[in-house]
Amino acid sequence: MLDINRIIELLPEINQAFLETMIMVGISLSVGLIVGLPFGILLYVTDKGLFLENRFVKVASGIIINLVRSVPFLILIVFLMPVTGMIVGTTIGPLAASVALSVAAIPFYARIVEASVREIDKGVIEAAVAVGASPWLIIKEIILPEAKPGLISGLTITAISLIGYSAMAGTVGGGGIGDFAIRYGYFRYEDTIMFATVIILIVLVQAIQYFGDFIAKSVDKR
């Protein structure tokens, strides 16, 4: 039976856990966007037949991204603990978890960016190259505007994935909704708390998905 009084009693802790989750997702999503976006574009423009074709850069970048993506997230957190300790001074809490989340977000979003820009008509890019447009101008005026809806949709997918990762981070002291659910819902067998955290995560994911879809449709001029 759902115990509303218990939920009200723990509301301050639920709010704190929610805030920690938003901190983790916000930091890692920002890093994923700032680093993953240029990384994904680099993967595309260095491909065969493109204006910055470079086989070595293409292969090396692809290997790095695939290596990071192949490591399960919980193992990645543990593996990065020494680095996390050096960066933030601790290996527990939302800021510490944000390090591993950021590392996971970069290759994840980079691959989405690469897939999005591949949908651009190569004829448009070839025409720009033919008239002497610089690589930066092509990226700025053609690739980014044309791929904008896909980039925003990809960012939405990345954000939702990071929410799931942040819940896993809670199992190793990362804080957030995942940590709260484990401490109360699992270890103390409080089904009400587990149910409440699941509802919070569902609402959060649905809100992000709706907002992301709305923005993507708004910028899509096709």
From TrEMBL:
GO process terms (BP): D-methionine transmembrane transport
Primary residence: membrane
Domain ABC transmembrane type-1 span(s) in chain numbering: 18-212
Organism superkingdom: Bacteria
Transmembrane feature ranges: 22-45, 57-81, 87-110, 151-172, 193-212
A Pfam family hit: BPD_transp_1
Membrane topology: Multi-pass membrane protein
UniProt keyword annotation of Transmembrane present: yes
Keywords: Cell membrane, Membrane, Transmembrane, Transmembrane helix, Transport
Compartments, as annotated in UniProt: Cell membrane
Similarity comment text for this entry: Belongs to the binding-protein-dependent transport system permease family. CysTW subfamily.
PANTHER family: ABC TRANSPORTER PERMEASE, D-METHIONINE TRANSPORT SYSTEM PERMEASE PROTEIN METI-RELATED
Protein name: D-methionine transporter
Biological source species: Alkalihalobacillus alcalophilus ATCC 27647 = CGMCC 1.3604
Taxonomic classification: Bacteria, Bacillati, Bacillota, Bacilli, Bacillales
